[in-house]
Amino acid sequence: MTHDPSDIQLFPWSVRLDALIAARMAAPFAWGTHDCCLFAADAVLAQTGVDPAAEFRGMYVDARGAVALLTDLGGLQAVAARAGESIPALCAQVGDIGLVEHEGRELLAVCAGPVWLVPAEQGLTALPIDSATSAWRVAKCPQP
């Protein structure tokens, strides 16, 4: 999902985040376009107008490339920290980014209130709010 910079001014962050989530509900998982890192980055972009993944978009297309890039970037926590200030995981609010454990793997997720959302084979999967081990507060654009 790409954003026109003028969209950032027209709609409040919550509308843009809701639109992103709605669009991704039917999207198949795809390394480099709809994976946990880019879903989290797209959520930050929707809320702030700043793309924390700008420097690495388009640099991988498979799991091997993703792992190599994550290693170069310092791991999932380093990538997540681009979203904002570290906060206690249980203090996350809608739109914040979390590091969750799911099926023996760590993933980046987006807080949707009482659940965390992560990309799944098809669409998004909701995980319990207590599945996050870390979280980062996204500094949202003020509502108009």
Structural write-up:
The relative contact order is 0.20. Helix 2 (13-24) runs antiparallel to helix 3. 33% of the residues lie in helices and 24% in strands. It is globular. It has one domain: endopeptidase fold (from Nostoc punctiforme) (Alpha-Beta Complex), CATH 3.90.1720. The model has no long low-confidence stretch (mean pLDDT 91). The protein has helices at 5-10, 13-24, 36-48, 63-73, 76-80; strands at residues 84-87, 97-102, 105-111, 115-119, 124-128, 132-138. The two termini are 23 Å apart. The chain has a six-stranded antiparallel sheet. By secondary structure, the chain is α+β, with helices and mostly antiparallel strands. A hairpin with a 2-residue loop joins strand 2 (97-102) and strand 3 (105-111). It is built from five helices and six strands.
